[in-house]
């Protein structure tokens, strides 16, 4: 987790000068949609844990900012409630043991008007989260996975020594047998664009393209899964090379401001997913707090583009970078 931030800090940008940036724009396309800035909100579970309005408040902020909102399969408000905010909504899915429930969720996402499906591929089981274990993390009874019906409630018994309630619940619901054949099957059952989140190895990125995936997200889940996994700012360039323009490449994990977004673009990303900063805004100020976070990142990106001599996102993607020692 710490290395994600350090890796972005180590990236050095080579600004261009005497470029007319008076009319600069960060407008681009992301997930097949026009967006004012190359951002979307990452899927994050159980947002009513942080604020009573949860995902509805966060999605409203995304709607105001004009950026897509990815609703977690483990959201504490339903995909229908989120889509009703007017945000361009992407439904995130985990591979479930209950294939009937998985199919039902695909159908609900389509019916709710979602613009894409995002399959998260880096959670065959939940990572060993020592803070959750030491703190005895248990979901409050009123924070449930609203999309999952009866399967979304908490467990009566915690999984045992060395397992948090959330990790035990993951073990009950998620199917660790996911393979590329399953990805191809998912591709075949929906006409929605398909996004794979949790790619780090360029060979996996190439397999994703071969499976007909529209977008890959270079992600280590914000450092919450495999401790010691490569930082995304390090992994990104090889993935960009491997897909060679055949699909979109988004990145998350450690993006904390507009300069990080500019660095991601310079490393070849189509755009970024914003993770924890959105939750901090939500916890501090509900929809307004989440909106302020998105505004700040956008403002910082516009300023950084001016200072780096980038009138548009394509020129940001042509910026040269180097790597130095980290500060964070
Ligand atoms: C509290 C929390 C819950 C998360 N829940 C999900 C989830 O339900 N599905 C998913 O694909 N990723 C989930 N993630 C991972 C995020 O989508 C994203 O990859 C990560 O937060 C990015 O790193 P950052 O927080 O450093 O920006 C979660 C992250 C956090 C912090
Ligand atoms: C059964 C609860 C699983 C929640 C998983 C959410 C997630 O991905 C995370 O990183 O936390």
UniProtKB/TrEMBL annotation:
Q: Where does FMN bind?
A: 43-45, 72, 92, 120, 197, 219, 252-256, 275-276
GO MF annotations, alphabetized: FMN binding; oxidoreductase activity, acting on CH-OH group of donors
Q: What are the record keywords, sorted? A: Flavoprotein, FMN, Oxidoreductase
Concerning InterPro entries, the annotation shows: Aldolase_TIM (IPR013785), Alpha-hydoxy_acid_DH_FMN (IPR012133), FMN-dep_DH (IPR000262), FMN_HAD (IPR037396), FMN_hydac_DH_AS (IPR008259)
Q: Which Pfam families match?
A: FMN_dh
Instruction: Show the Gene3D superfamilies listed in the entry.
Output: Aldolase class I
Needed co-factor(s): FMN
Q: Which domain of life is it from?
A: Bacteria
Active-site residues are: 221 (proton acceptor)
Q: List residues of the FMN hydroxy acid dehydrogenase domain.
A: 1-326
Q: Which residues bind glyoxylate?
A: 94, 129, 221, 224
State the family it belongs to.
Answer: Belongs to the FMN-dependent alpha-hydroxy acid dehydrogenase family.
PANTHER family given in the database record: 2-HYDROXYACID OXIDASE 1, S -2-HYDROXY-ACID OXIDASE-RELATED
Name the UniProt record assigns to this protein: Alpha-hydroxy-acid oxidizing enzyme
What phylogenetic lineage does the species belong to?
A: Bacteria, Bacillati, Actinomycetota, Actinomycetes, Micromonosporales
């Amino acid at each position: 987790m710490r290395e994600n931030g350090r890796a972005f800090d180590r990236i050095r940008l080579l600004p261009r000068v005497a470029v007319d940036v008076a009319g600069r724009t960060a407008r681009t396309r992301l997930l097949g949609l026009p967006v004012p800035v190359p951002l979307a909100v990452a899927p994050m579970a159980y947002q009513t844990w942080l604020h009573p309005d949860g995902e509805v408040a966060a999605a409203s902020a995304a709607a105001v900012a004009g950026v897509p909102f990815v609703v977690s399969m483990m959201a504490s408000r339903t995909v229908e409630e989120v889509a009703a905010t007017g945000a361009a909504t992407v439904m995130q899915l985990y591979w479930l043991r209950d294939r009937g429930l998985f199919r039902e969720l695909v159908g609900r996402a389509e019916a709710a008007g979602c613009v894409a499906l995002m399959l998260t591929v880096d959670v065959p089981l939940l990572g060993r989260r020592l803070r959750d274990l030491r703190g005895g993390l248990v979901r409050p009874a009123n924070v449930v996975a609203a999309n999952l019906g009866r399967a979304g409630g908490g467990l009566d018994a915690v999984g045992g020594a060395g397992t948090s309630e959330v990790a035990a619940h993951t073990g009950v619901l998620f199917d660790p047998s996911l393979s590329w054949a399953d990805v191809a099957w998912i591709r075949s059952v929906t006409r929605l664009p398909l996004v794979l989140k949790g790619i780090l190895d360029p060979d996996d990125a190439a397999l994703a393209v071969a499976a007909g995936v529209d977008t890959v997200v270079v992600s280590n889940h914000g450092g919450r899964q495999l401790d010691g996994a490569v930082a995304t700012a390090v992994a990104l360039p090889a993935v960009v090379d491997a897909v060679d323009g055949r699909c979109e490449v988004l990145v998350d994990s450690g993006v904390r401001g507009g300069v990080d977004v500019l660095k991601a673009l310079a490393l070849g990303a189509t755009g970024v997913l914003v993770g924890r900063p959105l939750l901090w805004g939500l916890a501090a100020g509900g929809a307004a707090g989440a909106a302020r976070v998105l505004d700040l990142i956008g403002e910082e990106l516009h300023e950084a583009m001016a200072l780096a001599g980038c009138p548009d996102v394509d020129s940001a993607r042509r910026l040269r970078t180097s790597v130095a020692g980290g500060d964070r």
